Amino acid sequence: MDTLSAVNNRILFLCGQRDISINKLAALSALPPSSIKNMLYGKSRNPKLLTIKMICDGLGITLGEFFSTPEFDALEQEVR
Q: From CA 41, how far away is CA 48, in angstroms rounded?
């Protein structure tokens, strides 16, 4: 799994856990729905950390909580 897939999976998991839609997440995060959808559906291949931070703020979690999962811990180094 690559980093972008791990980020997308985490966002979808957290939305499912909270029973919120992508549009609701966008509203909570003060982001246009298209920004999140572009990231989730592959149009945007390099999301900014600020975007992820705004998503975390909307979900009421820290960046540390977002990235503190076995899925992120298991990612292989992408630059060799």
A: 15
Tally of CA atoms within 13 A in the half-sphere of 68 that contains its CB = 6
Give the separation between CA 22 and CA 28, rounded to whole angstroms: 10
Rounded CA separation 75/35 (Å): 24
Global pTM reads 0.90
Token output for 2: 């690559």
Q: What's the rounded Cα separation, in Å, for the pair 25 and 17?
A: 12
pLDDT in tens, 51-63: 999 999 999 999 9
Query: What confidence tens digit (pLDDT) does each residue in 16-53 have?
Result: 999 999 999 999 999 999 999 999 998 888 899 999 99
3-state secondary structure of 53: helix
Please count the other Cβ atoms lying within 10 Å of the Cβ belonging to residue 22.
16
